């Protein structure tokens, strides 16, 4: 009986670390793509400050909407939902990687709409994944105040990648910066296998 309890505790620790890591990489992806979006848009369209505010507003609104609507999702298969979120992040990585070449075939006046939609998608999946990860974490730890800790983990990812991109964007370039995010989310996607058999109880964050 005791070995099984120890095995269960070890499994829970691994699951908690996986949740924290996935959330950390989500912070990296969200902040990183927001920075890349501003740099790439200014490179393709011109240095237009008003659009930066519009893109940031779209991202923040979609983040709130994703977290809010995520509360109404069925929680029977949260890990599968996480796989969908991670897959969307990977698709976004590829979009930002190939965007400079593809934009040459698109009229200039369509650039703002494209970047606006990308920021909406980025914000929505960020908020949605945060809500799902909070529910998973809460069902393991059963702590009343877990959202603040998880939010700080995500913010650490925000700040870390912003500091890294100070050097990677001007020197190696936007594509290398995008590959950094893509690598982080691929590892995050693979790490979700540790949660595959884990189905939490219904909880509210």
Automatic annotation (TrEMBL):
Transmembrane segments: 20-45, 51-73, 80-99, 111-137, 149-170, 176-196
Organism: Candidatus Schekmanbacteria bacterium RBG_13_48_7
Name the record gives this protein: Major facilitator superfamily (MFS) profile domain-containing protein
Keywords: Membrane, Transmembrane, Transmembrane helix
InterPro entries per the UniProt record, alphabetical: MFS_trans_sf
């Amino acid at each position: 009986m005791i070995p099984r309890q120890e095995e269960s505790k070890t499994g829970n620790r691994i699951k908690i670390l996986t949740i924290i890591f996935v959330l950390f990489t989500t912070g990296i992806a969200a902040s990183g793509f927001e920075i890349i979006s501003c740099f790439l848009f200014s490179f393709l369209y011109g240095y237009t400050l008003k659009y930066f505010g519009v893109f940031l507003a779209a991202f923040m609104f979609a983040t709130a909407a994703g977290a809010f609507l995520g509360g109404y999702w069925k929680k029977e298969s949260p890990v599968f939902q996480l796989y969908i979120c991670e897959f969307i992040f990977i698709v976004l990585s590829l979009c930002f990687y190939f965007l400079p070449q593809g934009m040459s075939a698109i009229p200039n006046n369509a650039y703002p709409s494209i970047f606006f939609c990308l920021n909406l998608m980025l914000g929505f999946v960020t908020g949605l994944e945060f809500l799902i990860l909070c529910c998973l974490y809460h069902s393991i730890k059963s702590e009343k105040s877990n959202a603040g800790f998880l939010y700080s983990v995500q913010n650490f990812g925000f700040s870390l990648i912003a500091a890294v991109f100070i050097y990677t964007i001007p020197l190696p370039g936007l594509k290398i910066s995008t590959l950094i995010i893509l690598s982080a989310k691929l590892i995050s996607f693979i790490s979700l296998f540790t949660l595959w058999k884990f189905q939490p109880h219904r909880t509210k964050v």
